[in-house]
Amino acid sequence: MDKMPGASRPVRFRGGGFAPRPLGLVGAIVFITIIALWELGSRTGVISALVLPAPSEAYVAFEELVRSGMLWKHLSASLQRLIIGWSSGALLGVIVGVAIGLFSFARAGLVPLVSAIFPVPKIALLPLFIIWFGIGEGAKVATILFGTFFPTVIATYGGIDNLDRSLVRMGQSFGLSWFSIVRKIILPGALPAILSGFRISAAVAIILLVAAEMIGAEFGVGAYILMAGSLMATDQLIAGVAMLSCMGLTVAWLIGRAEKHLLRWRR
Amino acid sequence: MDLNIQSLGHYYGDLEILRDINLDVPAGQIVAVIGPSGCGKSTLLRMIGGLEQPTSGVVLQVGETPKDSLNPLTYIFQDFALLPWRSVAGNISLVLEDHKHEPAEVDEIIENVLSRTKLSDFRDAFPHQLSGGMKQRVAIARALAVRPAVLLMDEPLSALDSQTHDLLMDDLIDLWLREKFTSVYVTHNLSEAVHLGHKVVVMSRRPGMITEVVDIDLALDKRKDHPELLIEYQQHLWNIMREEVRAAELELIDG
Residue B85 and residue A188: Cβ atoms within 8 Å? Predict the structure, then answer.
């Protein structure tokens, strides 16, 4: 365009971005860097052992736990509570969420109730749970169940509310039965929301695990952490907390796999 | 099976949507319904298929429903309404699963409708992998799978780009020539109406009333050869509609 006055220049690129893509190694590098810096700080004395034990000390405590054979006892007790509490809470949550999503009466009656009880810290209800379900496993599982129930309910009916109604009309126009419409159109349509609800409720379940194991639990990762805390054994405390983090990572990974498999129809 | 619509009227609250609609849909014919946006033509179609209840009047099915029809009144939607989590074959089997069929029989029906809509190679594709035109062909295949007596089409080509639009319109003409299906075809596109309609029903703006019914006396397969006649019909329809469309536009701007 040399006939135009003024200098010519390429159009400045201003698109791109806003599209995060998976970078597998970065997450691991962040973890390793933080732990390495922490270890370095402890070794050089920048971080006093009184304030925070070194990762290597926590690892020694963890090894001791493995050697004494207690690891599996703690872990299995915790996993059992988590699995029973979370799966029954999630199942009930989906059922109630679907009811709220489909029936005006359930919606009118239950949504205010959910809003009223969801924000109550379940830990505050522990004494009641002990009276209702006994000091054994019942109260512990109930705590986790109650904690996971509410986020699941909200995620489920939110997912149903967001579903494209034209698909339901389509189902009706082909004479599908009510049950078919729920099972083949409404539930799969709400599944993405239900799965992201599971992410939240699984994290809540791990949080509540420690609270639940405050109720006279002999074994469990939460009981181990509480014991360590009361003895000021911070190395064991860190080892226990790391175990909780690993549970969180595992659950997130499992749900990620489930999403990849169940939601492969999304582009 | 014919359809007979008798003095149909409808209100949404205080708002009158449809007034005194009387219309015959004879078997084997395509009845095109055109009108300005908001004239209630889609509402009328939903009432014909039993998805919505009119405030007054009735839609009658006249004569025997074909015995082998699984879903006599079957829709084809503007937005395709395919389940994104089901493959092409899965979307078709969806509408067969509530009927007692052997799995082999279901497979046979799916094969059959896919070949009739030239989709056999896309059996296992998911909707997000298909273009708009292909999606609408899947929806047509799904509709054919239940052997409808009447196809209720709600602007089936409006979401497509213009080339795909023309191709699919030819496909619909071919389909009618082969199967002589009965149809109510709602559109705002006059060219679709004159290419596909045996008669064209012109509706007024809200409250929707039938202004005129124009018979197009030219066999569907001959229409391509007489573009000048079609343009004449199209011009005639536009003359009837022009003032209504203008008034409807102003109404929308006024809110």
Answer: yes
Whole-angstrom distance, CA of residue B60 vs CA of residue B70: 18
Q: What is the pTM of this model?
A: 0.84
Question: Taking a C-beta distance cutoff of 8 angstroms, is the pair B93, B107 a contact?
Answer: no
**B128 contacts A170? CB cut-off 8 A:** no
How far apart (Å, rounded) are the C-alpha atoms in residues A254 and A259?
Answer: 9
If DSSP codes are grouped into helix, strand and coil, which group holds residue B75? strand
For the stretch B186-219, pLDDT in tens is 998 899 999 999 999 999 888 888 988 989 888 8
Closest-CA residue of A relative to B82 is A167
Report whether A126 contacts A184 (CB < 8 A). no
Q: How does pLDDT run across B7-65, given as a tens digit for each residue?
A: 899 999 888 899 999 999 999 999 999 988 878 889 999 999 999 999 999 999 998 88
With beta carbons less than 8 A apart as the criterion, state whether A141 and A81 touch.
Answer: yes
Measured in whole angstroms, the distance separating CA A64 from the mean position of its chain's CA atoms is 29
Put simply, the answer to whether B84 touches A266 (Cβ < 8 Å) is yes
Residue B61: helix, strand or coil by DSSP?
A: strand
Q: In the block, which residue shows the tokens 């343009």? A: B231
Q: Is B65 on the interface with A (CB under 8 A)?
A: no
Of A166, A173, A265, the CB nearest to B85: A265
The predicted pLDDT at position A2 comes to 54
The gap between the terminal CA atoms of chain A, to the nearest Å, is 42
Whether residues A175 and B71 touch (CB distance < 8 A) is answered with yes
Compute the CA torsion angle A139, A141, A147, A152 (nearest 10 deg).
Answer: -150
Long-range contacts of A248-254 (CB under 8 A, 24+ apart): A248/A202, A248/A203, A248/A206, A251/A202, A251/A203, A251/A206, A252/A199, A252/A202
Say yes or no: B94 contacts chain A, CB-CB below 8 A: yes
B254, pLDDT greater than 70? no
Torsion angle of alpha carbons A76, A82, A83, A84, nearest 10°? 110
B-chain residues within 8 Å CB-CB of A166?
A: 77, 79, 81
Contact B97 A169 (CB under 8 A): no
Long-range Cβ contact pairs of A245-250 (< 8 A, separation 24 or more): A247/A78, A247/A82, A247/A206, A247/A221, A248/A202, A248/A203, A248/A206
Asked whether the ipTM of the predicted complex exceeds the cut of 0.90, the reply is no
